[in-house]
Amino acid sequence: MAFAGRWETETQEGYDAFCKVLGIPDDVIERGRDYKLITEVTQDGKDFTWTLLYPANAKVTNKFTIGKEADMETIGGKKFKATVQMEGGKLSVTFPNYHHTSEISGGKLIETSKAGSVVLKRISKKI
């Protein structure tokens, strides 16, 4: 149950480049650059509810079970099917345009998203 809790972004690296690769408009990138994203996670064994709270009260909630295909949604509203895997304590999932991993290390939530050679790394603290 290491992922369960409420997390707030402390640092992020590669934000601008990652957003540009995904085609996010410059004004949206600018508004989100210094925003402290809140991630809320509930975990019951292999069942997760993962909610991201963005600026302007936008939020995305994805519910999934490790190893089973689930209906997912991006912040842009794109719906897709994906299977979240757990490998060595890391959650791993492929979104339409990038691959994402999440892990707990040193009491922090570390999320890494890769789109080709562009990497976004976000570190969040539990609040």
UniProtKB/TrEMBL annotation:
Record flagged with keyword Transport: yes
Main localization (coarse): cytoplasm
UniProt key word Metal-binding: no
GO CC terms, sorted: cytoplasm
Gene3D superfamilies in alphabetical order: 2.40.128.20
Source taxon at top rank: Eukaryota
The entry's keywords: Cytoplasm, Lipid-binding, Transport
InterPro entries: Calycin (IPR012674), Fatty_acid-bd (IPR000463), ILBP (IPR031259)
Pfam families linked: Lipocalin_7 (PF14651)
GO molecular function, one term: bile acid binding
Compartments, record wording: Cytoplasm
Family note: Belongs to the calycin superfamily. Fatty-acid binding protein (FABP) family.
Record's protein name: Fatty acid-binding protein, liver-type
Organism this protein belongs to: Maylandia zebra (zebra mbuna)
Lineage, opening ranks: Eukaryota, Metazoa, Chordata, Craniata, Vertebrata
